[in-house]
Amino acid sequence: MFQGETAITVDDKGRLAIPTAYRELVADACANRLVITYNPFESGCLWLFPQTEWERVRDQVNALPSVKAVHRALQMKLVGAAAMVEPDGAMRILLPASQRMAAGIEKKAVLLGMGNKFELWSEQAHLAKIRQTIGEDEISDDMADLRL
Question: Where in the numbering of this chain does the SpoVT-AbrB domain appear (predicted)?
Fold first, then answer.
């Protein structure tokens, strides 16, 4: 559903405009109801889900037994921090200040369409991640089967 990389500017109030190319897709996918939360696997990045996709993810995460610390950590970072956001008339969403600060997202950010969700990266974290190459010893069996 979502794919592509877009440079984004966050205004002084912590709002970002949904890129024109995604506006109709977002409206169709979730009637402009989005959920923003932490990426629990990589720093410098937030996840932005259409509400329906979020509910599926949320339910899976909440179904994990909370007796394991790693499950509780995942539940805290994904479900506990989740915030519903809806675009205003100018198709801008307000990013929670605590999430912006934790991810290091300031004026410049990068929005990546990742199929079922968006990833919102701080400009610095995105650049560092893109500059990393995948080493031969990191290639999984699943990756080895790809025809790239």
Answer: 5-53, 82-125
